[in-house]
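Incident log entry.

Two folding requests arrived from the same account within the same minute. Monitoring flagged them as a possible duplicate submission, but the sequences differ. Recording both here for audit purposes.

Request one:
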Amino acid sequence: MKQIIFDIGSGSVGAAVAHLHRGSAPHLSYTTRVAIPFQHELSGRRLLSAMLSALGEVSERVLREGGASGEDTIFVSLSAPWVSARTTTLTLRSARAVPITRSLLASLREEGVAQMKGMVQIEEKLFRTTLEGYETPSPFGKRARHAEFALFQSFAPAGLPEQIEETISHH
């Protein structure tokens, strides 16, 4: 299986063509990186334009030199300033034990996690759950009066994922 991995950071855009085979280490057959030009006067709009230009160049190189095709799986990794991350703890307190379900977690998330204005959520990971004060790796299907769910979430500026997808798909 062949995968194309894009790495978009504050100073450069890179890509790698990775070949994955069950039971063996991944093999990188191609890598490339393009610097985002340094700006003496930082402007969000100019930085975005420069990043998308570098992404377009990297996409073209991967297609032309790296042997990428439309059949490949594409992953995009974003780092600052293109992504913002946070952790949040959601808490349930109930007079009686209630079933711990994914829909309960979704309900708590809607009540307790404010969306970041102008941002879209691109990732979420439940990384710790405690029931009745004890860490529980598999909470769903159990009952509890007190539960805490620790979430990792990442957000990107609204419209950015679509701009990245459009830039990659045009090459």
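Request two (distinct sequence, not a duplicate):
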Amino acid sequence: MSLITIWAVIRWLHLLSIITWFGGMGFILLVLIPFVRSIPGLTSVDRTLLLLQVGRRYQSIAWLALTVTAVTGYYNADRRRVVWTELTETIYGRQLHLKLEYAGVVVILMLVHAYWVNRRLARVAEVEREVGADLELERQRRKWERVSLGFLVLNIALSMVVVLLAASLVA
């Protein structure tokens, strides 16, 4: 009998996709942002636009990772024979329900961050680059940079809660 079953592969894909999604956010926050801020000769507007460009590239990877996570998560729950009523009736079900709620919040935050916050930031930065030095545009860009960073930090924090809840399901 083989040691690697289809269920081991599904669980491995589940973990790999979470690592990709979570690790990417951590890399952006802890490595990329400080590095880009330290590049000499790069204007603050160009730094913002560079980070947004990287964020858009990561976004496609993140959505793929979350899709794989959702599909493999469904199969993992099906393998454990979890039914909807158990999400409120058993300890395992309640923990899974809580994990799914937090994961849902994370997905909503990602949507708002990618399709609302960062689009506004990009518009302001692009106009600022075209117009040149403008105190009001700079103020708006810095505001949207703080909002974007706040969304990233909040998303990472809530993602850590999701991972902790996932670990408690296995333990």
